[in-house]
Amino acid sequence: MDTAPTLTFPVIRGLEAGREYFVAMWTLRMLRRISVFHEDDLPPEMRSRRTLNPARVPEISEYILDNPDDYVLSAITVSIDSDLSFDPLPGESRLGILRVPMDARFVMNDGHHRRAAIIEVLKQRPELAQETIAVMFFRDTGLERCRQMFSDLNRHAIRPSRSLGLLYEQRDDKARLAKLVVMESEIFRNIMDMQKTSLAKRSRKLFTLSALHNACADFMTGMTTGNLADDAALARGFWEAVALEMPTWIQVKEGNLSAGEVREGFVHAHGITLQALGRSGNALLQSQPDDWRDHLVALRRIDWSRSNTELWDGRALVGGKVVRGNINLVLTTNVIKQVLGLPLDAEEQNVENTHRAAREPVGCMPK
Fold first, then answer.
1. Cis peptide before 68, with omega less than 30 degrees from 0?
2. Which residues lie in coiled coils (predicted)?
3. What is the number of alpha carbons within 13 Å of residue 299 lying toward its C-beta?
4. Strands 321-322 and 317-318
5. pLDDT tens digit string along 7-30?
6. What pLDDT, in 10s, does the model give residues 84-118?
7. Strand stretches in the chain, DSSP E
8. Where does 28-84 show beta strands of DSSP type E?
9. pLDDT at residue 2, as a whole number
10. What would the DSSP string read from start to end of 265-328?
11. Is 212 left (phi over 0), alpha (psi -120 to 50) or beta?
12. Which of 48, 72, 297, 337 is least buried, going by the fewest C-beta atoms within 10 A?
């Protein structure tokens, strides 16, 4: 009789592509205690998956720590390099006990970042050790099979667009504020794509939710009250006031211009300008809290057309294309702030000086 020590735990047996696999509910403590074979020190040709990315681990652990009563983790997939024994329960064919030799080698096909994050979480929140995560076990049939499993598991794991992620986000107040602005605005409701992060040329939408989220976050910096409804009302009031100074936005909303035409012809129909408007609006409301609306009429003096390369080259445009780098955002913000009569801060002025020094002759700023 074989008396070698074994690890035993209840599982559900399944069949996938003709191969037997098992699903268990493991406590988070078990993930910490079970020895997993690490391949990170092996050459790439000998690994069955990518190496651990240290930057991802704190992201996942912070997510769990920030949401201890509301986190969700998908199943971990593991191959076991050993003989497995499944003992079905009486009268059952799928429910039973899986027996694994103690010296078995566990190889993570999918979930090694989640496991590393969970181990870090348990150092700070040991009370979570009894919570569980689903683990799928496969028999390890060699390196080639493990590699193919990793490829198959990740090939179709498409990350949702940032806009779609924000649309479904319920915890983050900045995301909730941006959604309230859209849902309660007759103007933005019709020109905002709530799912995509980049727009196709034929899209009927002018902006994306992710672009408005960035713009609202910059606009509300230092002005939030803690009351989401009030903050959203302030942001909506600002953006609707801006829209009234952008006739082409209104024409798109009313169906008199195509969104594609406006994006093709103007820089104000892109996320970088929306965010620059948010930054400028923040400075405007903090310096002119009572009559800020009156100052927005100056926006009509800006020539927003992409053909105005003397103004926009090196700012919102590089090589004729709209770009969203940090320096480009600052330079685009500078145009708006100066037109609104707002002073540039030290960083903005330094960036502006560098930009002007690099251009001969000096680019024309709107007066």
1. no
2. none
3. 25
4. antiparallel
5. 899 999 999 888 899 999 999 998
6. 889 999 999 999 999 988 877 787 778 888 998 99
7. 6-16, 19-27, 76-81, 85-88, 95-101, 105-110, 132-139, 192-193, 207-208, 317-318, 321-322
8. 76-81
9. 55
10. HBGGGSHHHHHHHHHHHHHHHHH-TTTHHHHGGGGGGS--BTT-HHHHBTTTEETTEE---HHH
11. alpha
12. 72
Q: In whole angstroms, how far apart are CA 189 and each of 107, 219, 240, 253, 254? A: 48, 19, 11, 9, 12
Query: So where are the chain's domains?
Result: 6-155, 162-357
Which pLDDT belongs to residue 55?
81
Residues 330 and 316: their CA atoms lie apart, in Å, by 9
Distances (CA, A) of 237 to 6, 48, 150, 167, 269: 66, 54, 49, 21, 19
Residues 124, 126, 128, 131, Cα dihedral to 10°: 140
Distance, CA of 257 to CA of 190 (rounded, Å): 13
Regions of the chain with pLDDT less than 50: 1, 39-49, 143, 362-363, 367
Q: How far apart are CA 275 and CA 217, in angstroms?
A: 9
Report how far residue 224's alpha carbon sits from residue 46's, in angstroms, rounded to the nearest whole number.
53
The rounded distance, in Å, linking the Cα atoms of 179 and 229 is: 11
Task: Report the length, in residues, of the chain.
Answer: 367
pLDDT at residue 208, as a whole number: 92
Residue 147 three-state SS: helix
Residues 32/116, Cβ–Cβ less than 8 Å: no
DSSP result, 159-195: PPPHHHHHHH--S-HHHHHHHHHHHT-TTGGGTEESS
**Tokens representing residue 142 in the block:** 């060699």
Is residue 100 within 8 Å of residue 112, measured between CB atoms?
Answer: no
CA–CA separation, 231 and 36 (whole Å): 49
